[in-house]
Every structure is written in C-alpha cells, then in structure tokens.
C-alpha cells in the first residue's frame, strides 16, 4: 500500500496563497474618465473589450470572430496616489490551456511608471478554475503619485473589470501618448501572446513600454491567415503609425502565403498609401533542426516575403520593410519556446529586442 502524499504547493508555501481585498475599497469602472483604456480599436463606439467590431462591414471567419473577444494587447492606464490596488474580473471562460499559465491566459499584470520607465510590479493571483475573481495587486504603499498600467489577459475574454482603490485615493489621467497614431500588429498565436507567462511579456506589450504610442494586437491563434476581409478591416483603423504583418506561421502552405501577402498589402495600400508596413517572416521552429523539409519550407516562405517587399519597392513604395524572423530568437533559439513554436518570456523578450531598433528606424 502506497504512503505517497499529494503535494499542494499553494498550501505549503505562504507566498503562493491568494490574498483577499479588504472591504473598504472603492470600485471604479475603467470605462469612465480619467481612466484610459487602450488596445481596443472600436472601444469608443462599442464600449466592450473586443479587438474587432461586433458587426464588421467585412465578413469574418468564425474563428477570428471568436478570438477577437480575447483581450490581448488591452491596457488600463491611469495616475493615482492609491496605497491599495485590487481588481475584480469577470471572464468569458476559465483557463484551459495545457502549455500556457493561467496568469498569462486569464490574468492581469501591473506596471508602475511613466512612459519609458515602466517597471513590473505584480500579477493577479486567483483560483484558475474560476471565471470570476478578485485579486490584490498591492497594499500599504506610500501615498504618492504613480502611473499605473494594467495589461489585459492574452487568451480569454473579459466581460467586466473593476479597479479597487482605497477611498482617499486621487485618480487623474495617465501621461499622454506621443501622438494619436497606432501601431497595428496582425498575426498568429505568437502575436496574440502564446505562451507568455503573464500579459506584460507578450512581444507587443513589451514594445508598448518602449514606444509611447498605442498598440493594437490583432493576433489570432491559428487563424491569422491573411484573408482579404481582414486587410479591408484593418484598413478602416484610423491614424495608423505602422502596420506589422507577422502571420506567415499560420499559412498552411507556401502557395497560400504567395497568394495572400501581396494581395493583403495591396488592399491596405489603397487606403493608406504612405503608412509604413513591416513584414516579418516567421521565427524558427525547434523541429527544423531535425526536419529538413520544415526548414526548407520556412526558407521558401521567407523568400516570398522578401520578394513581396522588393516588388513594392520597385514600384516606388519606399515605406515597406522586411524583418528576418529567423534571427529574432537569437542564439539557442530552440531554448526560447514552450513547445518548439510558441515563445516563452525569454523568446518574447528577444523578439522585442530585435524589433525595437527596426521600429525606431521606421518610425523615425
């Protein structure tokens, strides 16, 4: 008869236990001023945490329509002298991914500091089997002004989130962006943030801490395939600073990329002839070290991306650029993913490090 005991680390380690809020907090909707919610292109019209319009002019693939409810890239920004900060969250579903922590899929994380000075402070803790939770982010801080950024969950929807602050807390608007133009990133599950351990570690959120502009994350897990309907829809977003196309990894064939990429660019260019466009080829997959055909397919598709960019440049489109995604993970790239494909926090940090100088050059 076995005498083995089940190990429950949460019970054994006090640092892992869920802290509960006190009853004196005042709860605020981030939909109301002076809070600012960023990362949702249609929020002002629709008042919902969704990345695409509920009734778009162009028909969406069903999977894209569902994934648009995932709140990746969303941010709540405000300035406060609060000594305590908690959140109440009502999700559209529970954590259910085997290779991604619930903190990344369904959690919020908190950064403190103004533009270019944001420092990670903490992540929501909760019972990951629940779809509603209340979580303490900090208590007993000194009474001084702080700029707060809360990053939304990467792989789940949020029906409601409330910000709990101590009753004496003052709330003012966050620092303004450098301008009202937006960086739009269209792509795959990697773009969406799979499989970061917490929201702030997706590569678009890392970049948002380096560039004081709004980012719109339009990554769709398994379903960023370059459909023309998505090109038309993205072209409706006003004031684009840059369009990043990072969807090669979801192309099921080399032929599909060859068909969709030039067409996607052409559709977007009809409305935005001068907006910078950055085309990124996909990052390496660990299995390429053992699968010759997989490595060849990636090389072939990279050539298609390069060709699409060069052909536009030959037609006097000077604002289109190419980034070799196979270089982004750097040395020991195979150690930067969860499953050979989806980056860890280290992988996302390396991606952001590689993209930062390119974006600086493009954005001037």
UniProtKB/TrEMBL annotation:
Residues 182-360 form the SGNH hydrolase-type esterase domain. Residues 25-171 form the SGNH hydrolase-type esterase N-terminal domain. Gene3D superfamilies: Galactose-binding domain-like (2.60.120.260), SGNH hydrolase (3.40.50.1110). It comes from the Bacteria. This is SGNH hydrolase-type esterase domain-containing protein. It comes from Paenibacillus anseongense.
